[in-house]
Amino acid sequence: MLSLNGSGVGNGLTFGRAVVLERWKRTTPDYSISQESVDTEINRFRTALANVKAKLHELQNTIPLDAPPETLAFIEVHLLMLDDPVISEQPVASIRRDQKNAESALKTHADTLVAFFDQIEDPYLRSKKNDVHQVVDRVMIELLGPVLSEPTQLNSRLDDQIIVTNDLTPAETVSLHQRGVRAFITSLGGPISHTAILARSLHIPAVVGLHSAIRYIRNDDLLVIDAANDTVIVAPDEDMLVKFRQRQKVHAQHTAKLALLSDRPAVTQDGINVKLLANIEFPEDLPGLASVGAEGVGLYRTEFLFMNRAEPPTEDEQYKAYCQVLDSVSGTVTIRTLDLGADKQVDGGRADGEKTINPALGLRAIRLCLNEPTLFKPQLRAIFRAASRGDARIMIPMISSLDELDQALELVRETCRELEKEGKVFNPNVPIGGMIEVPAAAVAADLFARKLKFLSIGTNDLIQYTLAIDRIDDEVNYLYDPLHPSVLRLIHQVIEAGNRSGIPVAMCGEMAGDPVFTRLLLGLGLREFSMEASSLPDIKQRILESRIDELENFSRQTLDCLDKESLRHMVEQLNHTLHKPV
Predict the structure, then answer these.
(1) Which residues are catalytic?
(2) Which candidate, 538, 454, 421, 436, places its Cα nearest to that of 490?
(3) Closest CA to 334 of 433, 416, 231, 233
(4) What is the C-alpha end-to-end distance of the chain, expressed in Å?
(5) Domains in the chain, start-ordered, CATH in brackets?
(6) 481 with 459: CB under 8 angstroms?
(7) Each residue's pLDDT tens digit, 140-165
């Protein structure tokens, strides 16, 4: 029996037999072609692109009508990438100009696109470079022939089986799901990759980023997947299987029980209302919100509108997307303004072309928008116009100074004056809020609260900036600790600042969707949580089982605890006493 650890996706618990797909990376051929062969080589490249598109469209047509909307969205992202000039046109130009073979030309320009994603600070968006690799791999397979043991070559049913491979594309994940795959394990990827998000949506248990998977797991090995604990058990003994079967039974009962809570308001035992909102990226995410009882959208990431294209979206393109969301949601929709790092394809082209040494501390988010008002103003105009259709809020990311905030608010006022002068239909009273994810903003939250209508704590960045670690760096991410005393004190300080100023404070980072922290955050005064929709039922149950009057004093005692183990023990105690929902 062997235990391996990676990053679990969802809370699934299952077991089955391994199907190992060892995908090997081929060296991309690089050679010159004659002038007479240029047209033939271009035709070969275009045929490969067309074949990949045709296979993706074929996959689209096989997706059941009741499949989650994210299923189609991920395939559409890959189709959009295939139409991107960097993938579809620039390799053709290289073949013609440099007389290079198709594979080499494609790799050269794909590497350029990957470099674009590498400059993005946001780890979620930076992980989208995996989609570039996946799309390019599909084209390479068409050019060179299939790699041995590709997932797409599996034609039989995969019931009770667990796929083990280096990586999976979203399209392959859909295909495997249709064949009944029980779960999957990948050596690469992370819990916020497209594939991981899709697996969560399809309720496929998975463990990703398990670097030793291919080395230690063999075909037909019996595997236990414990996604909630990031664990894979290889060849479990009978006692272990008995324990896991019992846990499976309990988990199934728990899931069924949570489904009954969707229509219940999130009210504590002592009558305190708590607002539960969802984080979304695509408009296609919206249909799933009602089924979990989300009261609105606490974080609408708008970055997807700017991705996979040479030019930023127009004002009208953005307006239509925001209208689609607002027309579909009865509650509040919090639209976060563009949160990207500096890059030529988005920021209008920085003339020096130099790569930022540390993009985490560079020109990103509101800094980028203030530096490039021609990027920021069309988004503001689109939001204000769309806000005439529903309850919208604007959230400014990564604020760190009052001067910066004043500049942003002046651009907001300027935008409203322009729209009014033009006679456009818009809502001039859209609340403006700030995302507190920089320690400087948390410390000065009371000052920011005087100028804003709401605050939202972005714990993902707040934790890594406070602790000076990159949470996606394997060598230091063990230091990423939401329960660090400095982090808890900053969170409490922001909540208190909002209370004193009479404005709401939400939390939209991963911490908000983790039930381990729910009661602690309630005790610290948080009354608005925003998270991935799949996490909402668990959080609601914790709220229904809690009494604020029992949590407040105990939670605030954690702020004075300096010992890590003692602090974790206090949180465990806090979670121990629960009340049955009435």
Answers:
(1) 194, 508
(2) 436
(3) 433
(4) 44
(5) 2-23+150-237 (3.50.30.10), 35-144 (1.10.274.10), 271-576 (3.20.20.60)
(6) no
(7) 888 876 543 455 546 567 888 999 98
